[in-house]
Design goal:
- It contains 8 helices and 3 strands; from the N terminus they run αααααααββαβ.
- The chain has about 325 residues and is mainly alpha-helical.
- It folds into 2 domains: about 200 residues, Up-down Bundle (Alpha-lytic protease prodomain-like); about 120 residues, Cation efflux protein, cytoplasmic domain (Alpha-Beta Plaits, 2-Layer Sandwich), CATH 3.30.70.1350.
- A 3-stranded mixed β-sheet has the order 1-2-3, covered by helices on one side.
- The two termini are about 45 Å apart.
C-alpha cells in the first residue's frame, strides 16, 4: 500500500514539473500575467508533491520508542506545508496582478499560449482525479490533498483560458490582470482550507465524518452483550485510526469472555473501516441501572425487564458516562 502511494507521488512530481515548464514557456511566449499566475502555482505543485513523497515515506516507518503512536501525523504537517506554500503563492500573484493592473504589459502569441495551457489543464485534472480516487482506497490524506490541489489547478487554468479568450475577443488588456487577481484570491482560499485541515488534525480535532461512520458500524453490528459503549474517541494518525472507548459487559463474564468481546469489537472495526485500527477498550461491568436497556437473554442477575433499546449516536456515545435514561441524558 505504501509503495503504491510512493509511486503515485513520484508520478505526480514528474508530471507537475513537466507541466510547470510548459506553463512558463507559454508565459514567456505571451507575456500574460494570468498565465504567469498559473505557472507560479505549478511551482507549488512540484514542491508540495516532493514533500508529500517524504511524508509518506516517513509515515510508513514503524513505531519506535520516541514515536509510540507511529509517524502518521507527519501527513498533517505535509498538508500544512502545502497549504502554506499555496498561501504564499497567492499573495505573490495578487501583488504582481495589482501592479500590472496599473502598469499593463503587452501580450503576444496568445493562440499558441492558450493551446499549451489547455493541454496542462487536461493533464492536471486527469491526474488529480486519479489521485483523489486512489486516496480513498489507500486511506491517504496526502494523496487526497495533492489530488485536490491538482484539480484546483486545472479549474484555475480553465478560468484563465476563458478570460484570455474574452480578452482576445474584446481587446481589453486589463482583463488579464483582473483574471489574475481573481485567481490569486481563489488560490489563497484553497491554501486556507488546507491549513485548516492540517491544524485540526495536529490538534486532534474531532473528525465528525469518521466518528459518524464508527457509530454507524457499531449500531449495525451491535451484539446484545455489548450493553453500552461510551467515552468513544477517534484519532487519525496517517492511514491508521486510534480508537478509545468504554465497553459495558455483563458483570458475571470471566476474563476470557471479556477478552473475546474486546477482540470482536476490534475485528469488526478493522474490517468495516477498511484501514488499520488500534483499539484501546476499558471494560466496564454492568450495574442494576443498565437492566432497563440491556438485551441479554436469560440473564441470571437481571433486576428489571428491558424497556427500551438506546440507540447510540455521536452525542451519547462520546460522553464519559453509562447510557442511563435519566436527567443526565
Amino acid at each position: 500500500m505504501v509503495e503504491k502511494q510512493k509511486r503515485l507521488i513520484i508520478i505526480a512530481v514528474g508530471v507537475s514539473f513537466s507541466l510547470m515548464i510548459i506553463k512558463f514557456i507559454a508565459f514567456f511566449m505571451t507575456g500574460s500575467n494570468a498565465i504567469f499566475t498559473d505557472a507560479a502555482e505549478s511551482i507549488v505543485n512540484v514542491i508540495a508533491s516532493g514533500f508529500a513523497f517524504y511524508s509518506i515515506h516517513l509515515s510508513s516507518r514503524p513505531k519506535d520508542e520516541n514515536h509510540p503512536y507511529g509517524h502518521g501525523k507527519v501527513e498533517f504537517f505535509s498538508v500544512f506545508v502545502e497549504g502554506g506554500l499555496i498561501v504564499i503563492a497567492g499573495l505573490v500573484i495578487l501583488a504582481k496582478s495589482v501592479y500590472n493592473l496599473f502598469f499593463p504589459s503587452s501580450i503576444t502569441h496568445l493562440d499558441e499560449g492558450l493551446w499549451l495551457v489547455l493541454f496542462t489543464a487536461v493533464v492536471n485534472y486527469g491526474l488529480g482525479f486519479y489521485l483523489v480516487k486512489s486516496s480513498k482506497n489507500l486511506n491517504s490524506m496526502v494523496l487526497e490533498a495533492d489530488g485536490k490541489h491538482l484539480k484546483v489547478d486545472a479549474y484555475s487554468t480553465c478560468a484563465v483560458i476563458i478570460g484570455l479568450i474574452v480578452l482576445k475577443a474584446t481587446g481589453y488588456f486589463w482583463i488579464d490582470s483582473v483574471i489574475s487577481i481573481i485567481m490569486g484570491g481563489f488560490i489563497l482560499w484553497s491554501g486556507y482550507k488546507l491549513l485548516r485541515t492540517s491544524i485540526s488534525g495536529l490538534m486532534d480535532e474531532s473528525d465528525s465524518e469518521t466518528l459518524n461512520k464508527v457509530v454507524e458500524i457499531l449500531n449495525t453490528n451491535r451484539r446484545k452483550q455489548w450493553i453500552d459503549i461510551h467515552n468513544l474517541r477517534v484519532q487519525r494518525y496517517g492511514n491508521e485510526l486510534h480508537i478509545d472507548c468504554h465497553l459495558t459487559l455483563p458483570n458475571y463474564y470471566d476474563l476470557n469472555q471479556v477478552h473475546d468481546e474486546l477482540l470482536a469489537v476490534e475485528a469488526l472495526l478493522n474490517k468495516e473501516l477498511n484501514t488499520s485500527v488500534e483499539l484501546f477498550v476499558h471494560a466496564d461491568p454492568c450495574v442494576p441501572n443498565c437492566c432497563s436497556h440491556c438485551g441479554v437473554e436469560n440473564c441470571p442477575i437481571r433486576s428489571a425487564p428491558q424497556r427500551e433499546r438506546i440507540e447510540w449516536n455521536t452525542k451519547n456515545i462520546t460522553k464519559n458516562m453509562k447510557h442511563f435514561r435519566s436527567k443526565e441524558l
